[in-house]
Design brief:
345 residues, alpha/beta, Rossmann fold, Dihydrodipicolinate Reductase, domain 2, 2 domains, seven-stranded parallel β-sheet, seven-stranded mixed β-sheet, 14 strands, globular, binds NADP nicotinamide-adenine-dinucleotide phosphate
Length: 345
């Protein structure tokens, strides 16, 4: 039995299922409660067939037990309403929704429908370990970074840190996402006949993740397409620097940022079929792939970043942040590679 206990609220959903999978193999955390309103008292494997055999049944979310860490994998708005109860039963709360990701109440008014507990925003730590590692040890409220935001920020932040990007360059970001981003109850637009074969601009402007991205890399022009994948987010960032940049400058910036990072792989123009970041190559893992090219005709930098939205974009990243917060080995429970060959993830 692992030393510390964990629960997942919203465990019947997609990211909740991933948390259950990861916690089942975690050396330091033991999953003791998984909640669902719809499937209360049914086994976890009843909803998540990959977890058949797990000896745990869903319980209703109003019967929370005391644990060391509570993961909330619930829709936007639930955590901010229930945060006091979550913190009553757990020393550490890790929220996968957007409820505690932004810095100010004004941002929630602009991008969401306001916030019911704005006084907690300064207390929560954004969970994107490559950028916020220093703030995570001992954090008691962690807001795991959003999927499209994570892919985009990981692609652009090395350019900011290296001084290649200031505050006034034009940045255009195009993200392609899989259907699991919409959650298990994705609705009509995610039903198989409607989703099959699409390349659908679903958030041409004003996507909520712009706010998260701007907190780390400044303003971006951001568009998201729904494409035919189940898992995956692939960000293509077009950057128009003020000063000319060489390929060597870019390798320097990205190596400096990621050489010591356990969950970031630089993939840029090598040989073989998969020469740039590819969601299929990271499906099921907590790995982000990042790569880049320079367009010699106009100096444009194009940066690619690929993640599994339910892993590096949510559940995996939440576990990584928790490992750091609680002083575990950073990679605990996350040290596995993906599959190859594999069908559409
Ligand atoms: N999907 C992704 O790729 C992704 C990536 C990053 C972040 N996120 C964020 O993570 C959160 C979960 O996303 P998801 O895709 O896993 O959603 P989902 O598949 O729709 O799952 C949501 C879960 O929350 C439960 N739930 C709903 N309302 C609740 C309430 N009022 N009280 C308690 N439980 C409630 C649902 O189960 P019952 O109805 O049975 O209780 C279900 O288990 C969202 O905030 C989402 O924005 C998702």
């Amino acid at each position: 039995m692992a030393a510390q206990t964990a629960s997942v609220v919203g465990a019947s959903g997609f990211t909740g299922g991933e948390l259950c999978r990861l916690l089942a193999g975690h050396p330091e955390l033991s999953l003791t409660q998984a909640t669902s309103r719809q499937y209360s008292r049914k086994t976890v494997g009843h909803v998540h067939p990959n977890l058949r055999g797990m000896e745990l049944r869903f319980s209703p979310p109003d019967e929370l037990e005391s644990v060391d860490v509570l993961f909330a994998a619930t829709p936007h708005g639930v955590s901010m309403d229930r945060i006091d109860r979550f913190r009553d039963v757990a020393d550490t709360v890790v929220d996968l929704s957007a409820d505690f990701r932004l810095n100010t109440e004004e941002q929630y008014e602009q991008f969401y429908d306001g916030h019911s507990r704005p006084e907690l925003l300064s207390e929560s730590v954004y969970g994107l370990p490559e950028l916020t590692r220093e703030a995570l040890p001992g954090a008691s409220l962690i807001a795991s970074g959003g999927c499209n935001a994570t892919a985009t920020i990981l692609g652009l932040k090395p350019l900011v840190d290296a001084g290649i990007l200031g505050n006034d360059e034009r940045i255009v970001v195009d993200v392609k996402v899989g259907s699991s981003e919409g959650g298990a109850g994705g609705g009509e637009s995610s039903s198989h006949p409607e989703r099959s074969g699409v390349v659908r601009p679903y958030a041409p402007t004003g996507h909520r993740h712009e706010a998260e991205i701007e907190q780390f890399v400044g303003p971006v022009s951001f568009t998201v397409h729904a494409v035919e994948m189940v898992r995956g987010a692939s960000a293509t960032c077009h950057v128009f620097p003020d000063e000319p940049v060489t390929t060597g400058d870019l390798w320097g910036a990205f190596r400096e940022a990621y050489d010591d990072e356990p969950f970031v792989r630089l993939v840029s123009g090598g040989g073989g079929v998969y020469r740039y970041p590819e969601p299929k190559a990271v499906a099921g893992t907590n790995i982000a792939e990042v790569g880049f090219e320079i367009d010699p005709s106009n100096g444009r930098i194009v940066v690619f970043s690929a993640i599994d939205n339910m892993m590096k974009g949510s559940a995996g990243q939440a576990i990584h942040a928790t490992n750091i917060a609680l002083g575990f080995e950073e990679r605990a429970g996350l040290q596995f590679q993906g599959l190859h060959p594999v069908g559409a993830p």
